[in-house]
Recover the amino acids of this structure.
């Protein structure tokens, strides 16, 4: 990733799954991503909270909005307020799409946290023809990016 970053001059975001890899990820990443399955890894959240890089916190696929915000508080408590929320869909009874993209979460997160939020429509639906309309919907409800 370091070589690609140098060659392309693109910003890098990558997922950190284990605190033992923090130094390696920190060295190359412009943004550290916490994936949905690590939203309750409180040791990991605490350690990224001690860093000075932005953290993208993906919503757990079975997490309520309150639980998601609660996870961000572990990061904030350590002094890092550079949190970017990512709505990536949640598990529901819907069996047509991979997940259910919860677009109501966008204005709620903006109101409750004052943090930026992006929407991941490909992860949130898993259906190619839904990506464009859900992208537009995400932006329409106030997402800061896709």
């Amino acid at each position: 990733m370091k070589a690609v970053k140098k060659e392309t001059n693109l910003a890098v975001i990558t997922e950190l799954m284990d605190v033992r890899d923090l130094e390696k990820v920190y060295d190359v990443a412009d943004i550290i991503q916490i994936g949905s399955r690590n939203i309750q890894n409180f040791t990991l959240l605490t350690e990224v909270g001690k860093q000075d890089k932005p953290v993208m916190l993906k919503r757990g696929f079975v997490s309520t909005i309150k639980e998601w915000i609660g996870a961000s508080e572990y990061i904030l408590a350590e002094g890092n307020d550079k949190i970017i929320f990512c709505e990536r869909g949640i598990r529901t009874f819907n069996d047509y799409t991979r997940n259910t993209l919860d677009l109501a979460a966008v204005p709620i997160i903006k109101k409750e946290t004052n943090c930026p939020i992006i929407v991941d429509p490909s992860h949130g639906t898993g259906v190619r023809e839904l990506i464009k309309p859900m992208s537009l919907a995400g932006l329409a409800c106030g997402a800061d990016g896709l």
